[in-house]
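Researcher: We are triaging several targets before committing to wet-lab work. For this one, the compound of interest is adenosine-5'-triphosphate. I'm pasting the protein sequence and the ligand SMILES. What I need is the predicted three-dimensional arrangement of the protein with the ligand bound, expressed as structure tokens, so it can go straight into our comparison scripts without reformatting.
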Amino acid sequence: MSGAQKTILVVDDDEDFREQMSLQLEAAGYNVVTADGEEAARRTLEDLNPDLAVIDLMMEHVDGGFTLAYRLKKRQPPVPVIMITAVASETGLDFASAAASESGWMRVDALLSKPVRPEQLRREIARLLPE
Amino acid sequence: METLRVLMVEDEAAMRAAVSRALSRYTLRLPDIEGEYGFAIEEAGSAEEGLARIEASPPDIVLLDHKLPGMSGVELLGILAEKQPPVSFLTVMMTAYATLENAVVATKRGAYDFLAKPFTPDELRSVVSKTTRHLLLTRETRRLAQEKRQVRFQLLSVIVHELKAPLAAIEGYLYLLQDPGTGSDPAVYKKAVDRSLVRIGGMRKLITDLLDLTRIESGQKRRELVPLELADVARAAIESVQPEAERRGIAVTLHAPAPVPMVADRAEMEILFNNLLTNAVKYNRDGGTVTVRLTGGERVRIEVADTGIGMTPEETARLFHEFVRIKNEKTRNIPGSGLGLSVVRKLAHLNGGEVTVESSPGVGSTFTVEIAAHSPEAQETEPE
Ligand SMILES: Nc1ncnc2c1ncn2[C@@H]1O[C@H](COP(=O)(O)OP(=O)(O)OP(=O)(O)O)[C@@H](O)[C@H]1O
């Protein structure tokens, strides 16, 4: 890794997901900042400029993830966003497809579903954060 | 007054007028069914016209003449019987040839009742009354079944979500162990194993709670009402939370100055204590106390008081419903299914009583269950 360490913001209300992201991204040499929801993320972003964000779509407000992604995309320069979905197909709530159709408008950079496999995540990050 | 629409398919104008007269001022009150019912009469001179009207806007009851020019009444019945989705109105056949054979054919094709011509206004009203009653009861039954399915589905969706979240977490940790980048790190290893075990514990609790809940709700499991001493049940339950309480330096004490005899289902009482006691320990502070107080009599009082994190009035107002968990800084790392208290409430109701809570943040909570010493036999499943 050349130059300054890159910072990744992880936003999810599941403690274990945040823990897993930290463990694996730190092992890969990134600096990780976590937030447990949209509110906390907004506060964190007041004095943080992440290089990339990993956001869970399904936080306490169903569209919390989208709102946050939208804010990050409005920044200059826009922050790459990886959206994570816990697809609940059994419940008939198909957030993956909703997310896909919205992703054009939102310009989310990648959509992954939970659980996220490490190599999958590394691939997306490498694509979005080229050295 | 509610108005039911009656469509009369009859080619004789005089007959239509007579039926209209007999029903237009007629109002109906039915035993066991709420409300008063009146009738609005619509007329069709042929089966074809009747069918068109039914398709445009289905009535509640159809009075159908047997012999009509063009398509006959029985033929129309046949068409109606084939309709998908099935029609939701009832048909009464009117015929001058009330033979057994006619009746059989018509009923086979879905007629609800028969009216032999000529009939008196009273005979007409009596058939209409009987038909209305059947119609309303079927609709009510169908509505209830629908509502029940709805509730089931919502509950299932929540359960699916509640089970998938820990599964995803455990799977995520296993991926970390499998990955060469993280798998060889002892710190990751420890974290992954510890947290997976916690999440598995949460799933197990959810499954046990769900089983308790369905047993109670379905009434499948026969309740065994036996004489028992409640203090014994309390002592056994305290025993089972003791290891966790000791680990956190929490003292659990029982105050039962006099015997508390009951006639109740032992398993129900165990579940009740277990849920209240696990919570009192789980949501306590290290070094805190849990006090169980039992008072006997015709009404039995169970108090479980803790010195834990407590709740605000807004939070306590939301308790006792399925899957309600209070989310804040203090509860974040405490696993649970959010079912325990809803089980407690169901059990309290089943035993002719109620559960209440008094709580203040940072001070502690007291849950009080007041139930009948002799549990009522009736297995009422209460609508939520
Ligand atoms: N003694 C207590 N002190 C403070 N808060 C409590 C207490 N008991 C329950 N609560 C709050 O009420 C919520 C619902 O409790 P409930 O027992 O139904 O579920 P749970 O503890 O989340 O899970 P479980 O059913 O696995 O025990 C809890 O999440 C907790 O926030």
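Researcher: Any quick observations?
Model: The radius of gyration of chain B is 32 Å.
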